[in-house]
Request: fold
Amino acid sequence: MEHALSPATLSELRRPRPYPAVSVLTPTHRREPGNTQDRVRLRNAVTEAKKQLENDPSVTRERRVDVARQLDRALSEVDLTHTEDGLVIFAAPGEHQVWSLARSVPERVVLSDTFLTRNLVSAQAAERPFWVLSVSADRVTLWNGGGDRVVEAHTGGFPMVRSPMHFDAERMERVGNPPSTFRDEGTRHFLRDADTALARLLRQDPRPLYVTGQPAALSLLDEFGGVARGAVHVPHGGLAHGSADAVWQAVGPLHDAQTRHDAAAVTRELESARGHRTFAAGVDEVWRNACEGRVRLLAVEENYRVTVRDDGAHLTPAASGDLDAREDIVDEIVEQCLDKGADVRFLPDGALGDVDGIAGVLRY
Reply:
């Protein structure tokens, strides 16, 4: 199952497909009693997708069989013992993907010529993704962080492994340097190459960055003056060969502290916007401004959900399951704002005070 949504991956998911491109969304649960019905709910959703394929006169028999087969393959790849809060299956002629999300999604099936990505985009923003680079003299490991975990990332040339190492302590003493693995010329070249590879990755997928390693390794990266120099340094060795849990134990408290600091800064900016008349609040007002590209900063409480109906002039409350209800309007707003260059921040429930779950700072 997929977890990490890079800009390149999102662009690929959004490209047009031969009709039908099927998106199957279903909420999942991490623990009992909710997760006892997840498998039944998922199978019912896939069955509904096949039913819609069968009843759509514009879908040829050949494509219907192909996409149904892709749905079955996707279903067989789902591991419900490791699900999070939402599951998305994409299936189109010749392809399928399964995504696990740390954010709930509405139960729905959509047939179109593109995949439905708004829920993936919103979940990615809510997780506040970041990178961790763990360096040692013989290995550099990249970790993909988000929510309350990190997982090793195999992208951008990482992990980088140097083998075998040739550390000549006698030579370093002859030229007047104290013996140190991180003063060795081979090690310097190795870590410089890692810094260069990291710079390429950050251009493609910019995120906050933490770098772990021995103090001597961190000092060497500072000396290079590359992208790692501006990262949050964590003087903790051994993590390039360590486990994801060990990396999270080292970085998690720093990331949580930064998250609290950022949330306080967002709250202050919203208060300032009230005084400058560049403040929007409530799902209807924020949605209209988002559509016009006026939102510069969007703040959403983490578990805020609302179901609405669009009457043409305003969004009005609706019941879940109504024929014209929009159950994921919050995710629509998040995607709309991100696509138009806004900064999107998710805050703890209640952080917006008297505002109903969602607010924004306007550009004008």
In short: Confidence is low (pLDDT under 50) at residues 169-179.
